[in-house]
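2024-03-11 09:14:02 DEBUG pipeline.ingest accepted 1 chain
2024-03-11 09:14:02 DEBUG pipeline.ingest length=284
2024-03-11 09:14:03 DEBUG pipeline.predict start
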Amino acid sequence: MSDSDAISNKELKALVSLLDDTDTEVVQHVENKIMSLGTYIIPYLEFEWESSFNPVLQKRIEDLVHTLQFELLKEKLTDWKDRGAEDLLYGMWLINTYQYPDLEYEDLKKELEQIYYEAWLEFKSEIHPVDQVKILNSVLFAKLKFGANTKNFHSPGNSMLSVVLQTKKGNPISLCVIYILVAQKLKLPVYGVNLPNLFVLTYKQGDNQFYINAFNRGLIFTRKEVDEYIANLNLSPSDMYYEPCENMDIVLRVLRNLINAHEKLGHTDKVEELNELFKLLNKK
């Protein structure tokens, strides 16, 4: 930011105080001016919100902060995409910050490292892959009590990793994401598979491949059962139903789930914004 763009605290305070002006043109002008200053002023706006007792002013500050945070999220998602969407946890964290903007990436990382540590304590590298997966299942689903959120299947919280880590309840894809992040840290070749209506996992190394249903306590199944599942849905077999998918596919599917959740709740503003994020990431 150049010196000419800089604005003093005093000037910002004066600007913010005009947000509850009765003239809508004045308010619009002030909002545009604050928006043009960029995301660095979010902490200042939050400070002004805390020290205000005016509900009109607070609401306008909230809306401005949300708009600025949303712009920042779009920038970060674009950057993540441009860098090859390599870090799945980072992508999931970014989606999480849509609802919880103050959530730190490091906090999520620490929670997952703790789960990895629990699994590492019991893990054996010299045994058969199926037995390795059974150990991981036992840690995640028996010891740590992760499980399917069947009561509130369509809750937006099911797509928020921080909420799933806290409640231990999630939808198929959020449970799979936790599973992938822990398994890959244990050097297991476990990846997501984009099955219709059900996100699952595959263990794939050379010719050795089998499948894992994290929504059903890590149930292990075979390619034949995927064939049957696809046939029951009257779909033609396709590689995407059997083979590992990309991190981007996972994050896009999480976004689709979030959009559906907010549609069911009638949150039209959120649906619009989430669709914007979806299009941004889905753009080739």
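2024-03-11 09:14:41 DEBUG pipeline.report Residues 9-82 form one domain.
2024-03-11 09:14:41 DEBUG pipeline.predict end
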